[in-house]
Every structure is written in structure tokens, then in C-alpha cells.
Amino acid sequence: MENDSDVSNDTIHFHYPLFTSVYGLTLAIGLPLNSISLWVFFTKLELRTAPVIYMTNLAISDLLFVLSLPFRIYYFATARWIFGNLVCIVSGTIFSVNFYTRSLLVTLISLDRYLAIVHPLNSRSLRSPKAAKVACAIVWLIVMLWSIPIGLYHQTITGQLNVTRCYEGFSFGTWQSAFVLISLVITMGFLVPFIIITICFFAVVRVMIRISKESQDFKKYKIIRLFLINVGVYVVCFVPFNFVLILYGMHQARYFSVRKIVQLFVAHAITVCLASISSCLDPIIYYFTTDAFRAFSMKSEKDTHNTIQLTKRKHQTTMDGTSPIT
Fold first, then answer.
1. pTM for the complete prediction?
2. How far, in Å, CA of 48 to CA of 59, rounded?
3. How many helices (H) and strands (E) does the chain have?
4. pLDDT in the model for residue 322
């Protein structure tokens, strides 16, 4: 970030403790939650269905994101980069592309649910596990292609007092050349997916309105809740982030000048934090909106209950010397 003459030092550096706190909290919550999610997906659900495959890839993306945070936490806590240029490139790139990896994967989840509700019979081949794996592979290929140019802009910079910086301090020339890339990634990685997710949501709602409220159809209403939460996360976490990022990039590239740069600077820092905490929300969404997670949880509770009952019965048998009725 380039220091503007009309921004005080206190304003410039307020984001250091803010980022340190938010990233630390995101790491503390996101690391165990996403790790547990992956454990459940791989060991209990075994990637049998397309939604599970999509959510597994989403959990992998979120886990990679939180694993990049320790470097940011140290940097913003000390205002000094000590890990070298390569770590700066890798951690900065993972952080940046995660926002759009998530967008593409949530789009696949929304499309899968749209096909399952609106075109259940004609879309079976498109909702197969094999098709889901191919779709995820395409997403990761796109992300890898985006990572190459994005990584070129995440270089260490030696600033005043010979202090090495990372994630900030970009020059006017860097912002100008990067703005085209920022616009392209936001368009293809956020705007288009957001439009698709919204269209899928309203299409599903339209179909559900026509469905009679019979017990056999009740479970399908959970799909609407999943869509609603996905759209809500986008609105809260990603719409402000991408909108402010475009304005901030245009200002830094000198395409237009913002009089109240302090407010824009603060808005940029806050929206980055909002987008970051979304990696903690996904595992919560999995649990409360995914039948598979709930079924696994209920099964675990049932197994635990049965084990306790069996232990009690064995204990009773040992105490009174009688055998339980079977």
C-alpha cells in the first residue's frame, strides 16, 4: 500500500493490529474446523457424491488459506518481513487466489443443486462424482493459471530504514500494471460466479414454490437454506471486498483521485478482514445445511449411546452374575 500525503501515520498503520487480530482469530478457528471437515469428507463420506467432492475441494482451499496466515500474522505484528522473497510470493498468492477459488467452487455447488432440483432426471451424468472431479480439476487449473501473474506482484520490497516489506508498499507503476489483472480476476472470479449463484437460487425458489408441501419434498427446502446462506456470505463478505478493491486499485493506479482517501483506506482494510473470515464460515455451513454432516453426527451420537448402554449391561452382568436378555 502506498502512503498518501493526506493520510496520517496513525491511519496508515491502524491495519497492523487489525490484521494481526483478525488473522490470528481466523487461524485459530479455521484450522481445526477445516481439518475436521476434511477428515469427515475423506474418512466418513468417502467422496461418494458430487456435493461432497465440491465441499472437499472448498475445505482444501480454505485450509490452504489459513495455513498462509501465520506469515501474515508475524509480519503485521512486527512490521518486518524475514521469510524471504519466495515465501512472500507463495503466501501472498495463496491468500489472494483463495477468494476466487471459493467463488468458483461455490458456483459449482450451486449449479449442482440447481440441476438436482430443476432438472433431476436429465442431469444425472452432470452430477456424477466423475463429472464433479473433472469440474474441480478445471477450477484448480484456472486458479493455477491466475496464480502465475498474481505471484509476480507479490515480491518483497525494501523500504525506508532498509526494512523489508511484503504484501504492501507497491509503487504507482505496479498498481497500474496490476489493475488490468485485478479487473479481469474480479470479473471472472467474482462477478460471473455471483450472477450464476443468484440465478440458480431464484430458479430453485421458483420450482420449490410449485412443489406441494408433502413430507417427501420437505428435505428439499434445506437446499434453499444452503443457497440463501451462500448468497448471504457473498453479499456480506465478498461484494464489499471486491467493490472497494476496484475503487482502491483505481485510486492507487491514478485513474481517479479520492478526496477522502482515509475512508477508502479503512474500508479496504475492513473488507479484506470480512473476506478472510469467510474461510471459518464454510465448515459451519457444512454442518448446519448438509444432511451428510448431520447424519454422521447423529450416527456418532447413536454409536456412543449404544456403547454406553452395552457397557452398562456388561457391568450389570458382572455385578449380579446374570446374563442380559438378547
1. 0.81
2. 16
3. 12, 2
4. 45
